[in-house]
Design a protein that fits this description.
Radius of gyration: 19 Å
Order of helices and strands: EHEHEHEHEHEHEHEEHEHE
Shape: elongated
Helix content: 25-40%
Distance between the termini: 56 Å
CATH superfamily of the largest domain: Tetrapyrrole methylase, C-terminal domain
CATH topology of the largest domain: Methyltransferase, Cobalt-precorrin-4 Transmethylase, Domain 2
Strand order of the largest sheet: 6-7-10-8-9-11
Largest sheet: 6 strands, mixed
Number of helices: 9
CATH architecture of the largest domain: 2-Layer Sandwich
Bound molecules: S-adenosylmethionine
């Protein structure tokens, strides 16, 4: 195996998989995302190449992985959460496959459920929600998500990459039919030591979350009520009417 696309987990460095950590500790080169815990990058051997992907666009990352892999190096592409959940891991895997470079995908714990859990929110819960829908906060073309489709799901919504447009998201969902009182939460820097959580009815969540830092998830649905009871170990910023 030359290139491993490894999920680093949601933020807490203890939440990488055993296999992911073993590959990191044995690699010749790591190419890592901004969101991964620095403690994990420090796990690579002393002589290994460390490359941040920060200034590279997706095509350049793909080319870099193919180039390193073609040299026969043991490469770890370390990605936040799970490589295949809004991580563009599929594009990297396709580029490696097209170039004939052997690769492996090592799943990670996605923020999708781990970050709400860290705030005391189970994304499904018997009697409250039987479905969970994840979406980016932007449509395919960078515009608005399909609010009508999201509002129709009837279960828990987990919206990624929406911190900068909470107001529009809440308004879009309410205009599409969600009750303005639907419980909502923003979980910022989930599973990290500086995690913060804001909870409020949907029409007040943007205001409640002012000042929270990225990365953050917006969670909407009845399951958010459980945070009051289950988030015993972390402070909640709660706005109620
Ligand atoms: C490009 S996506 C990558 C998602 C990642 N592949 C995963 O499985 O979690 C980045 C978005 O994931 C969410 N996210 C990732 N880590 C997070 C964390 N620790 N706390 C809150 N949101 C997080 C945020 O919405 C962030 O903008």
């Amino acid at each position: 195996m030359t290139v491993a696309l490894v999920g680093a987990g949601p933020g807490d460095p203890g939440l990488i998989t055993v296999r992911g950590l073993a590959l990191l500790r044995a690699c010749d080169a790591v190419v890592y995302d901004r969101l991964v815990a620095p403690e994990l990058v420090d796990e690579v051997p002393a002589g290994a190449i460390r490359l941040s992907r920060e200034l590279l666009d997706q095509d350049e990352i793909n080319d870099l992985l193919v180039d390193l892999g073609t040299q026969g190096l043991a490469v770890v592409r370390l990605k936040g959460g799970d490589p295949f959940v809004f991580g563009r891991g599929g594009e990297e895997a396709l580029a490696l496959a097209a170039a004939g470079v052997p690769f492996e995908v090592v799943p990670g714990i996605s923020s999708l459920a781990a970050v709400p859990a860290s705030a005391g929110i189970p994304v499904t819960h018997r009697g409250l929600s039987q479905t969970v829908t994840l979406s980016t906060a932007h449509g395919e073309d960078g515009g608005e998500p399909d609010y009508d489709a999201l509002a129709r799901t009837g279960g828990t919504l987990v919206l990624f990459m929406g911190l900068g447009r909470l107001d529009e998201l809440a308004r879009g969902l309410i205009d599409a039919g969600l009750d303005a009182d639907t419980p909502a939460a923003v979980v910022s820097r989930g599973t990290r030591t500086d995690q913060q959580v804001a909870t409020a009815p949907l029409d007040a969540i943007a205001e409640a979350a002012v000042g929270l830092r990225s990365p953050a998830l917006l969670v909407v649905g009845e399951v958010v009520q459980l945070a009051d009871v289950l988030a015993s170990s972390r402070p909640l910023l709660t706005a109620t009417r």
